[in-house]
Design goal:
Blueprint lengths: L2 H9 L3 H4 L3 H6 L4 E6 L4 E4 L6 E6 L1 E5 L7 E3 H6 L2 E2 L7 E5 L3 E6 L1 H19 L5 H8 L2 H4 L6 H6 L1 E6 L4 E3 L7 E7 L2 E6 L6 E7 L4 E2 L1 H5 L7 E4 L3 E7 H9 L5 E2 L1 H9 L3 E4 L3 H6 L1 E2 L3 E2 L17 E5 L4 H12 L3 E5 L12 E2 L1
């Protein structure tokens, strides 16, 4: 099956994908694992607890899960995706007919789809040139940034044309900016301390970063990076880069602080899937799955304070960011439920 057909089938597979654009799903493919099984074939697979399994096409038999239902089709997982047990427990899948399955890292997917929404918002507001924004969307450097700082990073980026032979950074000199190659190839030249010769140690291409380590350590450049062909680079001023890196994550609280907030009457919201919520949740919380958050935004009161949580903290960070955009006072539980030490506040 070609990628676009897979994406279209996936969008029909579960309501969490309905509002996510095909583009966002394409950009998130790194967190999808596709498994094809012919009729009669079996596979034993595992994942982080909370990962999801969808039957995109076909019918399978599953063992190693708590559910009584053993045979699953795309109709079954459309309403209720299979949730992986905690590693190292495995599930065994046997294809009753030719089947295509999707194993999803849901926390990473939530972050990437939230990132795409942030880029879409910037693009819709005309706050960045469309061409530059398109290139930034595919850069791993910018995909590591917290969502709440994406727009600030976009504003601090310029696109610079470079020629073959240009030195982006030079050995022993101060670095003026953090760079990411957008187009073209470059070579890295370093001094060999044993021979005293300048040697080429590696080549860089689109998406590769230049200068990050030296900037963080406030040191001079340990190498020279020289363009091998004409191209373009993204450049962010050193001080702006340091400022963004050193900013604390917004709206995140440790479990002990969250416990005090719980005792103080803050409202707790579980943004995991209903199936995860039913398995275990914090006493008295409300379940609003992340993919339903914007549809249910009117349930949040501007004068209340909320603590949102998920399994690991990644989905809740996205949720807190979205709620902040709505002027709702919300913080994310650091480490999520997996790091929550207060079993007396868990049910069932």
């Amino acid at each position: 099956m070609v990628i676009k057909e897979f994406i279209r089938e996936l969008k029909c597979c579960h309501s969490m994908f309905h509002t996510v654009s095909e583009r966002a799903l394409m950009e998130s493919l790194q967190v999808f694992r596709t498994i094809e099984l012919r009729e009669g074939e079996s596979a034993s697979i595992g994942g982080i607890g909370g990962d999801l399994l969808f039957v995109v096409m076909g019918k399978i038999d599953v063992t190693g899960i708590a559910s009584d239902k053993k045979e699953l089709t795309n109709c079954d997982t459309s309403g209720k995706p299979l949730i992986f047990p905690e590693f190292p427990q495995l599930i065994t899948i046997t294809a009753i007919e030719d089947s295509l399955l999707c194993h999803l890292d849901v926390d990473a997917f939530s972050y990437l789809s939230g990132l795409e929404e942030a880029f879409d918002d910037i693009e819709a507001g005309g706050r960045c040139a469309a061409g530059l924004l398109d290139k930034m969307r595919t850069s791993t450097a910018f995909r590591r940034l917290p969502i709440e700082y994406i727009e600030e990073a976009v504003k601090g980026i310029s696109e610079v044309a470079v020629k073959s032979g240009d030195e982006i950074i030079s050995d022993g000199k101060q670095i003026r900016a953090f760079y990411v190659i957008a187009e073209g190839r470059a070579e890295v030249l370093r001094l060999n301390p044993e021979t005293g010769d300048i040697e080429k140690t590696e080549e860089l291409g689109p998406g590769d970063e230049i200068g990050e380590e030296a900037i963080i350590m406030s040191a001079k450049s340990p190498c020279t990076v020289r363009m091998l062909e004409d191209g373009t680079v993204y450049a962010m001023d050193v001080e702006k880069f340091r400022e963004i890196l050193q900013k604390p994550l917004l709206a995140e609280v440790a479990p002990e602080v969250a416990r005090a907030m719980y005792n103080g009457g803050h409202a707790f919201v579980d943004v995991r899937f209903v199936e995860e919520y039913e398995e275990s949740h914090i006493v008295g919380c409300v379940n609003v799955p992340l993919f339903d958050l914007m549809k249910r935004k009117n349930e949040f009161e501007p004068n209340k304070e909320y603590v949102v949580y998920c399994r690991s903290g990644r989905r809740s960070a996205v949720a807190a960011f979205k709620l902040k955009q709505l002027n709702i006072n919300a913080v994310s539980l650091k480490g999520g439920l997996k790091d929550w030490p207060y079993s007396d506040l868990l049910e069932p």
